[in-house]
Amino acid sequence: MTFSITTWNINSVRLRLPIVIAFLEKYAPDVLCLQETKCPNDQFPSGAFRKLGYEHIEVHGQKGYHGVATISRFPLEDANRRTFCEIDDTRHLDAIVRTPDRAVRVHNFYVPAGGDEPNPDINPKFAHKLAFLDEMRNIPADPGCADSALLVGDLNIAPLETDVWSHKQLLKVVSHTPIETETLEDLRLAGGWADLMRNHIPPEEKIFTWWSYRARDWDVSDRGRRLDHVWGSADLEPALRGIEVLREARGWEKPSDHVPVTATFEF
DNA sequence: ATGGTGGTCATACCA
């Protein structure tokens, strides 16, 4: 069977419901993982997703900030919402996606952005980001009682030189500092996770999933970063058939500053 | 060195 999963930082699911629906109608992934839903659980627009055939929905949201949601055509089992750094932010949700052929544990993450100053001694937000990454070491690719594991979401770090528009100009910019990129790559490898986007798109090739709202013309200046990721357990590497970064979504009406990233597998 | 845009909630905070 074919299985597809999309990760998308939507920057308010209620404001952007029209483009989320348009995306699902056209691309129809089996699972959609959203971040920055900015939506309390009791106000999540579940009905709109059910109408499209996504009957299995797990949310972990709060008012105004953060928030993740996993929306699926297949049953979701054993959902967990983890707390990181002893702060009750809604930044993580995991569940088993029960496809007919394989059970996949899917972790959906929204890693702290980290503020502007990349110095943990003077910037508590950056310290929080580094502490959060340390705690992510507790989530290895071992699928446990499932068959396979995925970790997707907005990790707010662009690890490779080709994950940013200018490696040199971003070395001191939060999201691409050596402490962040090295910590992320180290925890990924220690956890046994494969960077599935980079398995499919060679590291020589630039890939961006985010473009700032502040650019005069995001498309012309193209100062993007790869902040959104799809990691998988080793057994999923040979099953991967494609990665699509939907750049055109950045140009849609009232866009998110992130675009959807879809991974397709053949089990 | 600075401010640029956008979302939330209602005044600054966060990205």
Characterization of this structure:
With 267 residues, the protein is α+β, with helices and mostly antiparallel strands. The chain has helices at 17-27, 46-51, 124-136, 167-170, 178-190, 196-200, 218-221; strands at residues 2-9, 31-35, 56-60, 68-72, 76-80, 92-98, 103-110, 148-154, 194-195, 210-211, 224-225, 228-232, 240-245, 261-266. It has one domain (2-266): 4-Layer Sandwich (Deoxyribonuclease I, Chain A). The strands form three sheets. Strands 3-4-2-1-14-13 form a six-stranded mixed sheet. Strands 5-6-7-8-12-9 form a six-stranded mixed sheet. The longest helix has 13 residues, at 124-136. The protein starts with a strand and ends with a strand. The mean pLDDT is 97. It binds one DNA strand of 15 nucleotides through residues 11-12, 15, 36, 38, 63-65, 113, 115, 125, 156, 212-216, 254, 257.
Provide a concise account of the structure shown.
By secondary structure, the protein is α+β, with helices and mostly antiparallel strands.
